[in-house]
Structure of MtN3 and saliva related transmembrane protein:
Amino acid sequence: MNENVLGIVAGVLTSASMIPQLIKVLKEKNVKDLSLVMLLVLITGVSLWVWYGIMKDELPIILSNAFSVLVNLSLLICYFIYRKS
Amino acid sequence: MNENVLGIVAGVLTSASMIPQLIKVLKEKNVKDLSLVMLLVLITGVSLWVWYGIMKDELPIILSNAFSVLVNLSLLICYFIYRKS
């Protein structure tokens, strides 16, 4: 497989992986088994990838990670809405 | 910040983000709110990143994503052990 195609497929999969998790949380309104630390570390990490992409001027890195930031921020908001206090 | 340092910090954070999730699952033995589809898509994605790293001969990409494969495979095994049938 061409390495650019491979990189794009890999990037789409890792960026999109949290969408099924977000859908599950929105449906079941339950986040008890999700790790808040995981979400915070992940959001920090993908935000830094966006910054890295901006510095290197690499649009695919910027776009895929900015998308991940959005999905994971949504998941974080759901976490605080749905956690049992 | 130097862009290589930034890339390394970002890579370590995104690779390590699933460790707190794995620890939580091992402690609480509960995976009801985790999405199996998320795990499968993520493992496929990071595996393709390892392949990409091998093709581009970029050791940081290979190592950080191989580490992610290990953590997420452990989480997948836990998923099947702890899900209520």
Q: What stands out?
A: DSSP finds four helices and no strands in chain B. Chain B touches chain A at residues 3, 6-7, 9-21, 23-25, 28, 30-35, 37-38, 41-42, 44-46, 48-49, 51-52, 55-56 (CB under 8 Å). The mean pLDDT of chain B is 92.
